[in-house]
Amino acid sequence: MTAVSGQRPTAADPAVAGQGADEDLRALFGQSTAVFASLAGPTHLVEAANPAFFAAIGEERARTGVALQELMPELAGQGFIALLDQVYRTGEPYTGRDVRVVLGAGPHARETYFDFTYEPRRDADGTVTGIRVIGVETTQVKHAQWLMTEHRALLEQIARQAPLTEVLDGMARCIENLAPQEVLVSVLLADSDGGHLRHGAAPSLPDFYNQAIDGIATGEGVGSCGTAAHRREPVIVTDIATDPFWTDFRDLAERAGLAACWSTPILARDGSLLGTFAMYHRTPRVPQDTDLALARIFTGTAALAIERHHIEQAKAAADARARAAHDELAKVVRAERELRAEAEQRAATAAELAARMRAAAAAQAATPRPERCQLGGSAGCTAPAEIKLADSWGDSAWGCPAHAEEAIINVRSVFIANEELGGLVAYLNR
């Protein structure tokens, strides 16, 4: 049976069914966050696309009636046009999961991730006439996964007491990689009285810039960071070229190629200032929700790292003081032992000399003045006896200058007792 000329096609007609399916898809994805585009012919002409598709590729490219490669030339170098050619040629659909897509080119290039499907469109005869692109952007999910991974790694670094500079530098690089648009991160550390900010980490800022702001004061109107530290609240400067906070630093920022700076104070649990966390941009910018979320997360992480560092510093200082005190006590104990040993030795020497004097006094009763020294002890002394010594108990003895000096030094009650000055002269000229 043939259709009557002029008769309207019915829904049972395959061509009509195909058109109806396309219309249903357009209706379904019209206001959806999922991207949808209908491509026609071997050049993949963009027939229709929903707002989410144009939002993903850039509103400035929101037009139809052009080949996809002309609309998005960056896709060719990433293999996506070749995939479309394959689906168009074979009629086999293609599905990608978490596929990396770089949208745009040059400084405006943006890394994104998508789950997508290329489905062939067919006419009534089953011939492929085009391709439907259906996808969901997974960039935020991907970034969230990276964020969790990097954040966990930072927490592990803090837990194993990695150097603070290493933790802060890694954190800055992590944020710079995660931020949806180019960002340059800086962490400044407050000094002990909170009056100045010192360089902590800023891997992507020029060295001359880091050196210039190292040690800036905290205070109202001192750039974004000095003001944020002073106010204890975030300070958002969207255009450095016109903001009064940057009057004194405007030329420096221009030389460094910086146009915006959002700074957040890093506070300890007791509210004291630990430092500031800043995100710089090369063009004037207003922060997005993702930017603020990154700032909140990593400001808290920085606070944890800095507080842990302060605790370790205080502990190290206390340990050093304890070691110094222990060493000093040990030194005092050693000195006391040495003094005690010396005193004991002096006492023994004095007792021995006193005994010699008593023995000499007994001998002197028979011989008033001996020829040889009487103070040489058991070993004896052959030196002439020149000096008479006596003690407070009345004992006396004659000795040579050397042994007489030993007795005078070690026996406190001993004195020179020569009746004439010769003994004193001998002692003085010893």
Automatic annotation (TrEMBL):
SMART domains: GAF (SM00065). Keywords: Coiled coil. Residues 326-360 form a coiled coil. Residues 150-316 form the GAF domain. Signal peptide: none annotated. This is GAF domain-containing protein. It comes from Micromonospora solifontis.
